[in-house]
Design goal:
Elements lengths: L9 H14 L8 E2 L1 H8 L3 H13 L3 E4 L3 E4 L4 H25 L2 H20 L2 H19 L2 H21 L5 H16 L3 H24 L1
Antiparallel strand pairs: 1-3, 2-3
Helix pairs in contact: 1-3, 2-3, 4-6, 4-7, 4-8, 4-9, 5-6, 5-8, 6-7, 6-8, 8-9
């Protein structure tokens, strides 16, 4: 779903916009912002922006500091590996469950994300790739029919995208696309074992990127 979809509640649109700005470093890591500045920047009301800020603070992407402003989470390369270690187990659960329970509607969402990711990889469009990756994660959450796992995975996925954009986007587009597309194909086919294997392959790739980032 597009981040500017007007059918969504304003708080959701505010969250999507702010999450994208944090992931793509438009809001610089370690920097500061104010609630008023973010409201002006998004063109949305105080209440939805405040709700989005609170959600992002819970996810660890923002730190609300009374009388000091809103701190953007710093980026330390070593933390990427911690994110991957926390994310791997839940991604395997989601992949297997999605393959087991995938519906026709969810399959259509996977195909749309698949096509968007493949097109972005061909064109070298990193921002479009990130949008397709988020769409894929949302399709995974929907198809898996496990709200507990989905809520656990979502912030880890956002953190992972942010690290990937910072450390790997210039060289890792094709490999990342290939691993994601393998996962989508297995889920649509309803192959639980293969979906789990493909999710593990994706996490292995990301783990390698994270280790390389630490060694730079």
């Amino acid at each position: 779903m597009h981040e500017d979809d007007r059918s969504e509640p304003a708080a959701v649109r505010a969250y999507r916009a702010l999450e994208r700005m944090i992931v793509t470093l438009e809001l610089p890591p370690g920097g500061f912002a104010t609630e008023g500045a973010l409201i002006d920047r998004l063109g949305l009301g105080r209440t939805p922006v405040r709700e989005a800020i609170q959600r992002l603070a819970w996810e660890g992407l923002l730190d609300v500091r009374p009388r000091a402003g809103i701190a953007i989470a710093p980026l330390n390369a070593a933390d990427w590996l911690r994110v991957i270690e926390a994310r791997e187990g839940v991604e395997l659960v989601l992949a297997r469950s999605a393959a087991r329970f995938v519906t026709r509607d969810a399959a259509d969402l996977f195909r749309a994300a698949h096509d968007g990711m493949a097109g972005a990889a061909r064109q070298g469009d990193v921002l479009a790739f990130l949008a397709a990756d988020k769409a894929l994660d949302e399709a995974l959450a929907l198809a898996a029919d496990n709200a507990f796992a989905a809520r656990l995975a979502a912030p880890l996925q956002s953190h992972s995208r942010r690290f990937w954009f910072r450390y790997q986007a210039d060289t890792g587009l094709a490999d990342s696309a290939e691993r994601h597309l393998g996962l989508v194909s297995a889920i649509i086919a309803g192959d639980e074992a293969e979906a789990q294997a493909q999710a593990r392959r994706l996490m292995t790739l990301l783990r390698g990127h994270a280790v390389a980032a630490v060694r730079r």
